[in-house]
Amino acid sequence: MRISELATTTGVSTPTIKWYLRIGLLPRGEATARNQADYGPAHVHRLRLIRALLEIGGLSVADAQSVLAVIDDPTVSLEQVMRVAHGALAHEAGSASPLGAAAVDAMLERRDWHVAHDAPARAELAAVVSAMVALEGTEPAAIPTDVVPEVARALAAELDPYAAAMDGIARDEVASLPADAPRDVIVERMVVGTVLVDRLLGAVRRLAQEHWFLADRGGPPPADEAP
Amino acid sequence: MRISELATTTGVSTPTIKWYLRIGLLPRGEATARNQADYGPAHVHRLRLIRALLEIGGLSVADAQSVLAVIDDPTVSLEQVMRVAHGALAHEAGSASPLGAAAVDAMLERRDWHVAHDAPARAELAAVVSAMVALEGTEPAAIPTDVVPEVARALAAELDPYAAAMDGIARDEVASLPADAPRDVIVERMVVGTVLVDRLLGAVRRLAQEHWFLADRGGPPPADEAP
After folding, report:
1. Cβ of A25: how many Cβ atoms within 10 Å?
2. 3-class DSSP state for residue A31?
3. Distance between CA atoms of residues B184 and B49, nearest Å
4. What is the least distance, in Å, from the CA of B67 to any CA of chain A?
5. A126 — phi, psi (to 5°)?
6. d(C-alpha A79, C-alpha B220), whole Å
């Protein structure tokens, strides 16, 4: 199909498609004339993936480029694909404190999870925990070093309901990866399962919060319930 | 304390603090001289909250302004605070399809969750589901109308492990809100519990994924495990 048809099929405008081609997110079509190329189902699929990473996943163009680069490179290991996808989701999460890092260690120990020391989610979680401690009125840096392990274990205990819920979910997610499928199928499943499911889980949690919050207060107003 | 001391205490630079003052994120200090103001513990706390929303939560400045505005306004109901916090987290999530919306309805029905029709997380989840269906090779719009309910129920069944996990978590979160506390304590807990815990949960899920993925493949390489 021509680029205009590719635009109609995917709902992505022609200028945007041309920009994706220029920055290498989308592979070029097969040249059929001096200024014309032919695009196929693989381009349609790739465009959907690009839009999903950018619009749904909220990734920056640079992060989407990194993720697509490891998907495309058959020499990159599955572990590395996971790391890059995790890194794309990990925010520049402010500064963690030694307490935050200790709380993450205590949570991992409590769950007997084995995670590399440079896993992007470690620093991210440590930063979130540090910010929450600071908001509760204690600057993490002000906690005496000898008390840190004890406070870290208490924080890990508070985190445990989240860790328990994610333990079961992540285990099922990993078990459901199609081990015998071709690499490109597996890596795309990993990336979608990481980036899109992150947003999915957040949205599901907010729906559950709304339900329980309204239930706690006597249910939603009838007008909101009408179809 | 003076603005320079506020900067040292919080680790936020003086120009950044001045900018927050100018755009109204941070209330002005008490004027002590023509070009000087006095800041107290409330300013330190507010700065931590601003940084947490922007850096950890990844909110835009405009969304942080909306969230802080409903925190500050005692006439805004708790429901509305929740909605604004949820809205700040909901991405501009591309376009949902009728199938995506039907899948969300089916999930809510399956869980017996009652959620307002304009809850921001509905459109967000519908868009995520639509994108995932498209990536699996079926354009949601191409599914015949009479088949949509059946496909939607099947999608809701796939979502159910996530919904089940979030059901317990959200129920506990709502139950643990300090009902007798002053409004400002409750609203801040709600906002932190929505925005920061969203990132927390994502990071915990990625740690669990890394653990189970590596466990599935015989554990992390020893070098990664060394302290």
Report:
1. 20
2. strand
3. 13
4. 16
5. -60, -40
6. 10
User: How far is the CA of A74 from the CAs of A80, A81, A122, A143, B38, in angstroms?
Assistant: 11, 10, 27, 47, 60
Using alpha carbons, select from B10, B24, B101, B66 the residue that is nearest to residue B194: B66
Mapping DSSP to helix (H, G, I), strand (E, B) and coil, where does residue B77 land?
coil
Q: Which residues contact A33 (CB under 8 A, 6 or more apart)?
A: none
Backbone angles phi, psi at B214, to 5 degrees: -70, -40
Q: State ipTM.
A: 0.90
Query: Cβ(B71)–Cβ(B191) under 8 Å?
Result: yes
CB B98 within 8 A of CB B140: yes
Helix ranges (H only) for B136-178 are: 148-175
CA angle A71, B91, B73 (to 5 degrees): 150
Burial of B62 (0-12, 13-18, 19+ CB in 10 A): exposed
Distance, CA of A66 to chain centre = 13
| Residue that the structure tokens 């333990």 belong to | A167
Rounded (5°) CA angle B42-B48-B52: 145
Picking from B51, B207, B217 by the largest number of A CB atoms within 10 A of its own CB, the best residue to mutate is: B207
pLDDT per residue as tens digits for the range A162-205: 999 999 999 999 999 888 899 989 999 999 989 999 999 999 99
Cβ neighbours of A169 in B, within 8 Å: 161-162, 165, 205, 208
Q: Do A194 and B188 touch (CB under 8 A)?
A: no
Nearest to B166 among A125, A199, A204 (CB): A204
What is the token pair recorded at B93? 């999530």
- pTM for the model stands at 0.90
Residues A97-126: tens digit of each pLDDT: 899 999 999 999 999 999 999 898 999 999
Closest CA to B96 of B132, B124, B119, B66: B124
